[in-house]
Amino acid sequence: MVFEVKCPQLARVEMEKLNKELVEVVTAACAAQEVVGLQLYLQMQGFLSQVQSNTSFDDQSQEIAVVAEELSKPLVLGRRAIYFHHIIASNKRRVVKEWAIELELGGFSKIGWPGVVIVEGAELNVQEYVRRLQHLRWKQITVRGEQTEQIQDGGLDKLRRLPRNFHEFPENGMSDLAAACRTAGLEELFLTTMKIYSKLDDKEVQASAENASTKKKSKRNGQKAET
Description:
By secondary structure, the protein is α+β, with helices and mostly antiparallel strands. It is built from 8 helices and 5 strands, in the order ααβαββαβαβααα.
C-alpha cells in the first residue's frame, strides 16, 4: 500500500518522519488484517500535537533568550530636545504628554510657534517616544539635541535632572522653559532646539577659523617673499 501525506506547515524532515511512521502503522495493520483508518488518524494527531508542542517550546526559548539579552545590556538614560514648526492641535498636545507619561519620561513641552519638547528617561523609552511622534503628521519635527548617560549604581532616578511629571508651557512660555532647563542643568540641551550649540563647539569652530586664517596669511606672505 503506497500513499503520501502532505502538510505545507511541516518542515520536510518532519514530513518524511510522519510518512515513515504512517507506513509502519499501515504495514502492521495489514499484516494483522485490521482496519487502519482510525490508527492513521490517531498517529497523525499525536505526531502533529508533538510538533506543535516542540514549536511552542522553541518560541518560548527564543523569547526568553531575547529578554535575557536585553536585561544583560547596560541601562542607559537618554534625553532628547525636539523642535517642531508648531504644536497647536489639541490631539497632538494630548499625546505629547500622554505618551511621555506612559513611557515614564519626565520633561517639558512648549506649544505654539515653534513647538519644543524636552524629555528624559530610559533610552529605549525615549527612542520609542520619538518614533511615535515622528509617525504623526507635522509640518516639521527635528531632533536637535541628544544626550545619553550609562546608568551605574543608584539606578535611573539618580541620574534624572528633569521632574518625573510632564509639564506643558504656553505659547509665550519659551523663556520659562529656558529657565526650567537652566535650573535642571540642561541649558545646553535646550539651546540645541534654537541651533545654538555648546560653547566648547563654538570655541573649536573659532579656533579652526583662526588656524585657516593664519595659514592663508602665511601663504600670502610666502608668495610676496618669492616675488
